[in-house]
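name: query_chain
kind: protein
chains: 1
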Amino acid sequence: MTRCCHFLAITLLTLGIPEAISSWTSLAHLRPRVDDGMQTRAVTELLRRLLGERASDFVVSVDGALGRAEGDLDSYELSSTKDDKVSVTGNTGVAAANGVYSYLKEFCGCHVSWSGDQLRVPRPLPRIPEVIKVSSPNRFRYYQNVCTQSYSTVWWDWPRWEREIDWMALNGINLPLAFTGQEAIWQEVYLSLGLNQSDIDAFFTGPAFLAWGRMANLHSWGGPLSQNWHEKQTSLQKKILDRMRSLGMIPVLPAFAGHVPAAITKLFPQANVTQLGPWSHFDCNYSCSYLLDPRDPLFLNIGKLFLKQQHLKFGTDHIYSADTFNEMIPASSDPVYLSAVSKAVFSSMTAVDPKAVWLMQGWLFVHQPDFWKPPQIKALLLGVPLGRMIVLDLFAESTPIYISTKSFYGQPFIWCMLHNFGGNTGLFGTVESINQGPFDALHFPNSTMVGTGLAPEGIEQNAVLYELMSELAWRKEPVNLLKWVSAYATRRYASSSENVAAAWRLLFQSVYNCTIPFYRNHNRSPLVRRPSLRMDTNIWYNRSHLYEAWRLLYLEAKSLASSSETFRHDLVDVTREALQLLVSDYYQEITTYFANRQLTELMTAGGVLLYDILPELDNLLSSEGHFLLGVWLERARAMALEEKEADLYEFNARNQITLWGPNGNILDYANKEWGGLVMDYYAQRWGLFISTLIKCIDQGVPFKEEAFNRAVFQEENAFVTSRRKYPVEPVGDTYEIASRIFVKYYPQAVWNLRKV
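structure:
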């Protein structure tokens, strides 16, 4: 029995459920599928992609026996060789890759992130004075959220996926979600049951909304899916899984959760099918999906058909994700019913794969606490044998569920940082919580914690949080946050400047350290929300810290902006955040002037906002490659074979980040601050809002929000249906634009602080 399994066995005995121990220890079979030699080659190839010819300075090997000494926990060893190379041995490819990245960070001052790399590797490599041995305290490091598949990865090609999987391995991820291409399998299953293609086309959503189709929140919106889409996604998924497995990862594949096309009710009229209620402001044209009762014999049949076909196409690693009640109220709160549901879902897995383990998101317990009381949670969880379900405590940095459920009533769980909603841009973090939370969970009485996880709805933002969380997964105790972030700044820019280190310490003490209980960060700035007279301008941090960090970064911009892509990115990001605060200031002025009927002052403030701040922000964002609307849209179009299909994908891409539905159903949930989007979407709304306020004063009439909303919807929808092209490469000089903005607006930002 491994160390981790032995710990949980003691826990289960303490809870009085010794019969679960044998089930729990079966988690030991969740391990790499490929041999040590293949994993060694995969890590070596990763280093060639990352370091080029300097990869030969590392001697990499994977030896599965290494982990056995640590109870099968991922482990690595680092040492220097006589010929100035670095020897890296890991018990898995992931462990070895993480060992290399640890060395690159700690000894070479290097950095790898979504927003750029800093890989100035010294020659020769710095020597390691004595052998370094590191083991992760937990079995698993989980990655992704079911929504990430739509908010971030939906338009990715293989090169982008290859880069991401490399990043996963370097950061020690060994349990990634792998949902790509499943609709092709579902199409085969439903055709084999007798449905026709039109039935299936009415079931699948468009690409940008697949996450919610998979969870029964939506159907058909943004669809249909083409056969080209199915073929490309199937091919892509095979590459994704091959690469993940070659590095020693354990991909999590989907399983049947009970959601079925409406046509099932006609084809199988005796089946026990319930139509669910509407979801999140959608009506039944696109919502009110159908749920097949897991106790119905047809449920087992469909679940088996899907898993068998998935095994044929993609293989299996014996762990499956299924979410039956994501943001949906079950048909009954009776614990007997809920237990039967989870038992049936799990049975559909084990009927095909006797070693199946169910990975379930715990978001439902956070989202609908009025329904999910202890008896309901316990019934759902314990319908599955203990140890055969792993629960993702999805929002543990803010709303941990493991405490109130006494470690999920004995089921293993993973402590996750959710962090991001909707893929929003905007600086945000809860560094104190994520620094302490995983260790509190690990030492919680009778803890069944088996890992940590990164579970954002969208990625490619706030890279610092994900590097910190990834490092904590390999540590035995919290870090000194200010010391850690100072070293991070040095690595990220290859700069020993005290100004940049001080800037990052200020950010960690303010915008990255939200301590408001249960806070959910959807970028609420008036900048990215439909204008009204009652907008939220509250923030969770001290503005002066953000402005001082902005100033300190600006002081180093002349020397670093030309040499460091990561610095350019962060200069744009922090300047963007500062301008976002200034937009709030101008909004408050505009509404005050309107209330006091001060027309001249309103026109002046509105003019500055419309004709300087927003255009300058758009120029700034357009100068940096990670903030371009054009990239998002062109990636969407590139997935198509013909113009009509490309137009549909572009519609999906535009709608998701704006209206999110036909009528603004989840308006601005996935807002982004991107070059092109600021001027052609947000600025158009602000222009209409300000002109409406001016007209109201001029004509002596009140502002009518409903009438304005109808009018502004036309502007919003015009953007969604437009096919205007946007740059896919940066335009303009970031330093020059950022300097111009700083000189104009930093003094005003500081002055505004005095008025608060």
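note: The longest strand covers residues 75-80.
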